[in-house]
Amino acid sequence: MPGLERYPICCPVDRQVWRNVLRKGDCAIDATCGNGHDTLALLRMVADESGSGFIYGFDIQSSAIESTRCLLEDSSTQTRRLVKLSLLCHSKMEEVLQKAPWLVAFNLGYLPGGGKDIITLPGTTLPALHAASRVLAPGGLISVLVYVGHPDRTILRVQLAAESWSCCKLERLNRPSAPLLLLLLKK
Ligand SMILES: C[S@@+](CC[C@H](N)C(=O)[O-])C[C@H]1O[C@@H](n2cnc3c(N)ncnc32)[C@H](O)[C@@H]1O
Predict the structure, then answer these.
(1) pLDDT, tens digit, 9 for 90 and up, residues 120-130
(2) How confident is the model at residue 150 (pLDDT cuts 50, 70, 90)?
(3) Is position 44 within any domain?
(4) What is the DSSP letter of 137?
(5) Which PANTHER family does this entry report, sorted A to Z (predicted)?
(6) What CATH code is carried by the domain that includes residue 83?
(7) What is the DSSP string of 13-78?
């Protein structure tokens, strides 16, 4: 089947969307680094041989920042030049950024393999989404993976003006417990 080659079944839908938004040389943000898998996927999408492209990564747990750093350094020689990891709440992203991102990715919830007591919470996720909406380049995308039953589901009420934003919610019809994907496109 031709479709399977283009979109490998193992590739999550959010990454398939990111790939259509990002170009080599772009800046992107991983707002929830966790173990660094999304950060690495983003780095591979934007890094080019000339050393352009840039990723900002945020997490509030030092173990997550450390795991992400190790994964990136094991997988890419470009990490030190092209990635800035910050042990900082994503609601404060504006304190660190020096470039406008084309994509800000949130994968909400707790650190896989870590304690379940530290999770993303609406009190900081909502301000972070607003910060992301301010810094995003026009034409860029905010991607948010939200788990069913998680307190962060209240962010589904996020209000962005229809004149400036196209907002979609992707839901798996045949797997109701699967996370929802919010795609917020800045016009
Ligand atoms: C589901 S994990 C992310 C998984 C990650 N994207 C990956 O590929 O492994 C969610 C992460 O969000 C982090 N987190 C929770 N609250 C945060 C906040 N206010 N700012 C930044 N990160 C936060 C958690 O520490 C956790 O590592």
Answers:
(1) 999 999 999 99
(2) confident
(3) yes
(4) P
(5) S-ADENOSYL-L-METHIONINE-DEPENDENT METHYLTRANSFERASES SUPERFAMILY PROTEIN, TRNA (MNM(5)S(2)U34)-METHYLTRANSFERASE, CHLOROPLASTIC
(6) 3.40.50.150
(7) HHHHHHHHH--TT-EEEES--TTSHHHHHHHHHH--TTS--EEEEEES-HHHHHHHHHHHHHH-TT
- Percentage of the chain beyond pLDDT 70 is 95
Q: Is residue 142 part of a domain?
A: yes
Atom of ligand 1 nearest to the CA of 34: 27
pLDDT for 3 beyond 50? no
Mutation probe of ligand 1 site: the residue of 120, 145, 180 with most atoms within 8 A of C-beta: 120
Task: Say if residue 10's pLDDT is above 80.
Answer: no
Q: Is residue 168 part of a domain?
A: yes
Q: Is residue 5 part of a domain?
A: no
Structural domain boundaries enclosing 153? 12-186
- Domain tally, the chain: 1
Atom of ligand 1 nearest to the CA of 38: 8
Region 152-161 average pLDDT:
78
Pocket test for ligand 1, best of 11, 32, 145 (most atoms within 8 A of CB): 32
* Backbone torsions φ then ψ of 155, nearest 5 degrees: -70, -10
